[in-house]
Amino acid sequence: MTATRVDVDHPENQPGHQPGHHTGATATGPGRGGPSREIGWRRLGGPVSVVALVAAALGAVGQALGTVVAGRLAEDPSGALIELLALCVVGAAVLQSVGRVAWAGVVDRAEGRLRADLLEAALHQPLAVLSEQAVGEVLDRVDDDTHEVGALARRQAWDALGTVFAIVPLWVVGGLTWWPAWVLFPVGGAVTLAVVRPLLGELARRKVLEEIAWTDHAAAMEEGVAGRDDLRTSLGQAHLLRRCSELSAQVHRLFASVLVIEASIGRRAGVLLHGLLAGVGAVGVALVAHGDLGVAELVTLFLVTTTFVGQVDQVARHLPDLQAGVGALVRLRQLLATEPEPQGGRSLPDGSLSLDLRNLHFSYETGSFALAGVDLQVAAGQTCALVGRTGSGKSTLASLVSRAVEPEPGSVLLGGLDVLEVDLQELRRAVGVVTQRTEILAGTLADNVTLFTDLAPGRVEAAMTELGLTDWVEGLPDGLDTLLGPGGTTLSAGEEQLVAFARLLVRDVRVVVLDEATARMDPLTEARVVRAADRLLTGRTGLLITHRLTTTARAEQVAVLERGRVVEQGPRALLAAGDGQFRQLLDAADDHVVTTGTHDDTQLGGVRRTGPAPEPPRTGS
Q1: Is the pTM of the predicted complex or chain greater than 0.85?
Q2: What does the pLDDT read at residue 121?
Q3: Domain range 355-440+491-606, CATH class
Q4: Would you say 431 and 399 are in contact if contact means Cβ atoms under 8 Å apart?
Q5: Residue limits of CATH 1.20.1560.10 in the chain
Q6: How many CB atoms lie within 10 A of CB 159?
């Protein structure tokens, strides 16, 4: 894993520096610029690598000497030559095996470190970048591409180095045995690579298309598994099967096109190299017949040529694998080059935090939606309800507060500080967000509340008590030790929201953002969630994003958004009594609620619905 770079010239690292008083956040991510964000031969450096390469080089020399001994043995057999040949062959094999094992160990360790660095780089991407990536794509980079790069270094790179080590002594032995070999060997190898090279670009292109097809197929399967309940209830399985079948067929077509290029490479290399071998053999026999070459030289020349042809042919046939490994290497370098989240920054002041939005403008890179000129002030410890039609910008505004997306400088202030100047980790400790969907991890209820962090004993129990969830916890099979996730107890959507509330409470966040936290719930579950939300918001600054206007009753103020602008804001009671946008929303939803009287937290949203009952629907014609 990597370490964060510390700048001794930065104000935060100067003696006497006080938190909350330096001018901004650094943009240095974990290990930025260090070896952990590079992929190169330095990852494989070390004494073990040197030992492996030396062993491979000595083994190649022994193999070349073995061809000379074999030639002498063919011409004049003797026990000493047999022993020397055995020493050359067996010694070369042992050295090469030792070198390969040592090299594989070096690559395995480097691959493990690379996985850790890639995972860290992926998780330290800005949330806006990470949210645009499918889970399958990130897994492909961290798992599949890392495996391909490891295979490239473990096998193809080792074989290429072995070929280089073997060709040089073979070329020397061949040239000393028969002088034309000085020219034939390099020319033969160069011609083979020249004939094969034009196909490599097309092979790389087709492999990229194949990789994209595999990723699309994995993403479709992932979406289908994630949405299996909706697909079943809406009879959408046929669409998923058809979609996956089409993507599978595309994968097979692209894979077949890759095989065509690979087969062509093999044929071209095979014809040239084996033609070279046949020609050398025929010429050698003719020279022996005319007395211009001895039997020992012929055997040595033939063995050297056979080994040389085999080495070059092996490289040519592994070029497709090299292309795949190089493609994976490029993708990993792109991931490691991603700008990480900024590190460091100012500290937030103690106590409750006010929220100020000043002339906030924001637009996504794609699409026409934008926030324009938003001004909003939420006093410390108060709650503001954001209401408006779907697509009016409520969730985007909340994302800017937590820096899930980056706002403009000076447009979002928390506790009087620009959120861009606040240390990002401290901001996340202070701001808690609950959305419609809460992810439940495999573990106990307590683990899901603490997210596997060490907390003081009784902290979780105290949070459940404060949220009024003691009875709910006691109703679970094993209380806080109840296993959740695969193989455990399944929670309803409302119960998952309760877990999210407890997570924020044990963190003791100071700003709470509830983004449609009560959507798609039955009345009883919603009532429990609303009561827990009331307790969670007590004494904390809150943003309450909702379409159910009854849930705005606990908010001190309301802001109405329309097409990215705040068209109305003020105290809820005042807006409800007026004739503005909020009043129109209340009338449209038939959600006019009593805003006076004693608060009863056993009622849905803390208020009762009033007014005449709706007319029964007409039936028939």
Answers
A1: no
A2: 81
A3: alpha beta
A4: no
A5: 35-336
A6: 17
